[in-house]
Amino acid sequence: MGKLFDIALVFEYMPAIFSRVSVTLLIVSVSVVGGTLLGFLLAAVRLYRMPLLNGAAVFYISFVRGTPVIIQMFIVYYALPILLSQVDININRWNKLYFVLISYALNNAAFMAEIIRSAIASVPVGQTEAAHSVGLSGFQALRRIVLPQAFCTAFPAFGTRVVGALQDTSLAFTLGILDMLGQAQAIGVRTYHVLEGYVAVALFFIAASLLLEKGFAWAGKKLLPNAG
Amino acid sequence: MIRVRDARKSFGKNEVLRGVSLDVKKGEVVVILGPSGSGKTTLLRCINFLENADDGELTIGDLSVRFKHATKREILSVRRRTAMVFQNYNLFNNKNALENVMEGLVTARGIPVSEARETAKRELDKVGLSDKYEAWPSQLSGGQQQRVAIARAVSLNPEVILFDEPTSALDPELVGEVLAVMRDVAREGITMVVVTHEMSFASDIADHVVFMDGGVIVEEGTPREIFTRPKEQRTRQFLDRILLKYDYAI
Known about the structure:
heterodimer, A: mainly alpha, MetI-like fold, 9 helices, B: alpha/beta, six-stranded mixed beta sheet, 10 strands, 24% strand, globular
């Protein structure tokens, strides 16, 4: 069995582990893009206080933000097929990855909704009134004045959330998804060298998180030179 | 010409406007005075539908609308005939001075960008900000921001400009520059309705002074009539209190 921890193995395993990076990136991108789109819908429901829907949105957001993502994933994985079988849709043979993508998108939707809603709500009402006073329609005021300002407010929080979404992807292996962590575990089971694989994965997450963080900070400076 | 007939507005149980009628002739400067809570700002905001009045009728030029039944399209066309200068300036924070003035021209009026830019420069020059085209609102003083806001309103060439306490949020030493710009605007013959506490401005510039209290117009007339020979007890009380402050010695 050899040494308990062999640093050389970290690098040896890296290619095999990093070859699964596409799965991780797929989960991140689908959950961020899908979550943002859904988040806009939820935020609109909350901001316009749409009857009935508003209450449902409040409940949904607090449920998602108040429970661990792993539980949400299990709920989607086990409950969604049962729910859909009631209307004669059979998804039992779906690839597990789809369940992961759905649950992460649903999870991120709640966080994005709150980021978007609070950013839009933080734009002073006087901005909208001024837009109306110069003759802009409601939609023009939103598009030209409110959303650009809300974007500046939301951008840093959005970046933080993307980094969070990246780290959340590591739970997908619990459903047997062969992402990087799944691969590290598989190697560990095969070779009895568990730690090395995890260290390689950790290195990836540290590097990727730092990269994203710096990227967002840089983009923030580029995009929002006159923030404030 | 602006005509408001029997405007009524309540916020919950609080009746803010109890049937206000107001006539403003073309080119006239009307100043609305009154204690806080008298409904003067609400009246102004009802004229361009920032508040929806509960009842009454509004005529601007050839456009007549009932407050209660105004359609979205009517509201938009009322807003495109009016402009407003706010107490807190409300410059668009995501746009520089020039873009602030251009926004209504380009987006609302559909004027070509190059033409709008020329108009905007001309109006900013008129308010003495020819060196601040590119400045962001956060880089401007309150007085400068309010002058941009006035340029923004004037550039739209509206039938009336509504001023909602335009100097109340300013440092005392910046009030003068804004009032000077407003004097210029008045001299151009632009119709203005001004809510203000600047009495000397009111008596110098106004063609017509309206005194409001408790959601109704208590008294109206020429500045001379109102300031020197107010008929109503309530008007006299108000003016005494306001004008008194220039009268004491420490």
